[in-house]
Structure formats: C-alpha cells, structure tokens
User: Which sequence fits this backbone?
C-alpha cells in the first residue's frame, strides 16, 4: 500500500520580516535559533553554522548551494559513524537514500531545488513528513543571501518519529515474517520437485515449467534470507563465524552453483589464492554468489565474466569483472546503501537492493573491503579484499 | 533403514515421507513434540530428522534429551530449520547434521544416505 506523503510549510522567518515574539519556551528557542541563523546569514562563516547546528537536538546537517554536505552536528555524525559512513562531501541525494524511501526522494529534492517563495509568510522553512516503515520528519531551513536572496545554505534536521523500541519491534517482526515464509516455501518446493520427478520422462514442457517454478522459489528464498539478515544486522544479532577455509574452494563452489542455473556466461578464473583464510564459509559464498550473479545479470549482452585472484602477505584480492554497460556515476556513490536500487534495477525491477549492502557488511565484518570501479559500456569490477587472519 | 521425522508442518512432513519412501526408506512421522521421545523408544529408528522450531518441546531441547540419554545417544539426529543461520544455531548443540529449509530433494537424500551408511556399518 502506498503510504501518503504530507507536506506543510511552517513558521518562516525571513531576515527582516516582522514577527510576534511568543512566550512559549519552544517558540523562544526557535526564535533564538533563527536569530543565530541570521548571524550566520550575515557572517557566512561555516564554523558559525557548525556551532548553530550543534545546538539542535536532532541529527542535523548543512548543505551548501550545490547540495553537498558541508557540516554535520554530533548527533548526525554519530549515527552515520555507526553505519561506517561519512557525511561531509556527500550529495543530498546520497544522504536522502538513508532517510527516505526511494519514492519520497523526488519530493525532498524538489523542495531543495525549488528556490521560489511559495508562501510569503513562511518562505524559508519546509517540513516534510514521510510515512515510511520508519517515519521521519525533515525540517529544511533555507538560508538566503542578503542581496540577491539566493539560497546559500540548507540546514536539514532529521527527526525519526519512532522510539528505539518501535524499531526493535519492527525488525523483530521482519525477522519472524521472513522465517515463517520459509515453511510454505519448503512444502511448495518439495512437492514441486516431486511432481517434476514424476513427469520428467513423460512431459518435457511441463517439467520445464516446474523447473522455472523451482527457480523462482529459490529467488524468493534468497530475498527472504536477505530481509532476515537485515533484521539481524539492525538487532546486532548478525554474526560472522570465522574458521580456516580455502577461498579458492569457496569460489569454485560458488561458480559451480551458478553454472547449474545460468549457462549464458563463461566464468574464467585467473590465478589462485592457495593460502587459507579465516573466514565464514557460508557468508563469503553468499558474497561471491551475489557479485557473480550481479555480474551476469547486468551484462546480458556479454558472455564472459573474469575473476582475477591475487594476494600479498596480509590479504587476498578477488576482482570480479563483467563486460556490461557499466554503472551510472550517481549510482556508484550509493551502490552499497541499504535498499538502494540503481537506474537499471529500478527500470527492470530487479531485487530489493540488499545484496551489495549485505556483501559489504559481510566483508567489513571480516576486516576487509569491497571496492567498485566502472566504465560506461566497458563493464564494472568489484574488488573484494579479504585479510587472511 | 528406519527414519523418524519430527516435523509439525504436515505438508512438509508428508513431502519428506514421500521422498524417502520412494527411495526405499521406512519412515515414521511424529507431529507432536511431546510424544517424540516415546516414539523413539518404541520404534528404535536408525535416524531422527528433527525440526528446530517445533511447537511444544522445541527441537533444541529434544536433541539435547536424545543425545544425553545413554540409551538413545548413538542415534544420529539431523536438524532441519527455516533459519539461514542454522550452523550458528547448531553450534553447541548435540546434533549430527543439519539441513536448511527449503531444501532440494537431492540434499535431503544426500544427508540421509550419509547416515544410511553408518546405520549399516
């Protein structure tokens, strides 16, 4: 069901505009804040803006006129640091993907880009209420130049309209639902495979249809597993169990599994790691499968995937190269974000946008990293660096 | 070879029974976790397939009771579960193997075959 987005604009205090002074402490705090904003307005000192936003009791960031983050208060920095992300230098669009559902991002960006004064009484502040899984209220204050009234800075506060307990309940529910879905999937899969075995010799076409049903059950199972993993990450219950394993073996197993389902591409492995690494076998296989599957999915015109293996004393490097159309520059910046869907995924409705998010979490959980580089019409390379210990 | 399946979802239990009987195994079903220990003592199976999330006494408690009972402990126990973190669940548990749900017929047969060999030896 599409949840509505309500938008309202409140309490604008443009520099120079007359206003009533309220005795309400909340209003007084706001009036003080706006006076300080005016100070910033006349001084244009970014450190002054930093001091102002530090006083705001919600995660708050400042964007410059080009919509790049130039300042963030401690609350914003801390919450981003928990997710191992930086804020300064990132675009409004990239940050919006952390706060909002994809469908709400255009409204937010429109609000930033719309320089017109829609309401003479309240021209410089917008409040956007988004009713997502985690509802948020974004307050956007626009700071304009004295002479030309052009927007110089945006101060954006993010207030999540939920308690921590709500979040826990929500993710616990996600975990339970994804777990419960597996019970009917198990019965459907088992009876489907039984039916296929009974008719395989008699009706080739029906057997192929049943095989397709089986493939789709596998796809649903993977999606359900991803949602379950996301709920575990939120609840700090996502564990990596490292044991001594051969990365060559895990890679080879993953390639064999993919070859059974997808015969469109040849997967060529160059080199060998040889040395064993302390890794969670299943989780690393999950990463290899995800990146190899993506490589095939996003290079439908090509017929080859290359995997280049190398190592140094400390770490192994696995570079997976596809020869597809490459990744859009804007998508590259956000590709590891939770629920992020790139241009092609959105168009083709491929997946939930969790595979690369989980892959990065898994690799970082091993003390490693995933890097991505891409060239238009030449393809993309996902490079996994995994320490041996 | 006699196999006891303890699974409270009747469709899954039925599918497993068909798969295994079609492949020459003798299968007993038990849907009620409270009756599992009694059934084991009565039927003396060569392999027990146990769901982790049974209503009533859960699979974890049952596997512990089986494996700490001197009379029953040599019986191999295969745990099945819908959790994709079953290896973590089974860590510290006294089970012999596990199978994540949903499973392929071939995976079920492979794990049973492993214990069919030990049952004969």
Assistant:
């Amino acid at each position: 069901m599409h949840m509505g987005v309500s938008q309202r604009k409140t309490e604008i205090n443009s520099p120079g505009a007359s206003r009533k002074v309220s005795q309400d402490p909340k209003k007084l705090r706001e009036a003080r804040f706006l006076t300080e904003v005016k100070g910033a307005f006349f001084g244009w000192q970014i450190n002054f803006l930093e001091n102002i936003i530090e006083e705001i009791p919600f995660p708050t960031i400042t964007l410059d006129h080009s919509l790049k983050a130039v300042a963030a208060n401690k609350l914003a920095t801390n919450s981003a640091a928990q997710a191992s992300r930086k804020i300064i230098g990132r675009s409004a669009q990239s940050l919006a993907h952390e706060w909002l559902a994809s469908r709400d991002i255009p409204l937010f960006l429109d609000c930033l880009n719309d320089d017109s004064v829609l309401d003479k009484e309240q021209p410089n502040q917008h409040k956007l209420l988004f009713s997502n899984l985690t509802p948020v209220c974004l307050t956007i204050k626009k700071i304009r130049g004295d002479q030309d009234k052009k927007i110089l800075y945006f101060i954006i506060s993010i207030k999540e309209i939920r308690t921590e307990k709500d979040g826990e309940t929500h993710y616990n529910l996600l975990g339970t639902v994804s777990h419960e879905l597996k019970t009917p999937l198990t019965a459907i899969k088992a009876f489907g495979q039984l039916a296929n075995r009974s008719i395989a010799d008699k009706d080739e076409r029906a057997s192929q249809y049943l095989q397709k049903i089986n493939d789709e059950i596998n796809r649903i199972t993977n999606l359900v597993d991803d949602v379950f993993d996301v709920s575990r990450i939120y609840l700090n219950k996502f564990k990596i169990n490292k044991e001594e394993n051969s990365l060559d073996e895990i890679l080879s197993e993953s390639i064999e599994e993919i070859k059974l389902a997808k015969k469109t591409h040849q997967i060529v492995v160059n080199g060998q790691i040889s040395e064993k690494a302390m890794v969670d076998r299943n989780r690393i296989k999950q990463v290899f499968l995800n990146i190899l599957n993506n490589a095939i999915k996003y290079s439908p015109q090509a017929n080859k995937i290359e995997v280049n293996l190398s190592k140094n004393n400390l770490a192994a490097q696995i570079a997976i190269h596809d020869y597809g159309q490459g990744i859009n520059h804007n998508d590259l910046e956000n590709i590891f974000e939770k629920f992020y869907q790139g241009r092609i995924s959105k168009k083709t409705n491929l997946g939930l946008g969790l595979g690369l998010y989980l892959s990065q979490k898994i690799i970082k959980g091993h003390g490693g990293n995933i890097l991505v580089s891409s060239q238009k019409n030449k393809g993309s390379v996902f490079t996994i660096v995994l320490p041996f210990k | 070879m006699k196999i006891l399946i303890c699974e409270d979802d009747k469709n899954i239990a039925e599918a497993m029974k068909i798969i295994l009987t079609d492949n020459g195994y003798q299968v007993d079903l038990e849907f009620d976790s409270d009756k599992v220990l009694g059934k084991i003592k009565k039927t003396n199976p060569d392999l027990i397939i146990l769901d982790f999330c049974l209503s009533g006494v859960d699979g974890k408690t049952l596997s512990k009771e089986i494996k700490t009972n001197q009379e029953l402990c040599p019986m191999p126990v295969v745990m099945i579960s819908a959790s994709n973190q079953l290896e973590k669940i089974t860590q510290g548990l006294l089970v012999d193997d596990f199978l994540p749900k949903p499973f392929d017929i071939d995976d079920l047969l492979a794990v049973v075959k492993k214990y069919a060999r030990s049952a004969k030896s």
Observations:
- Chain B touches chain A at residues 9, 11-12, 15-16, 18-19, 53, 82-85, 87-88, 91, 101-105 (CB under 8 Å).
- The first helix of chain B runs from residue 10 to 22.
- The mean pLDDT of chain B is 87.
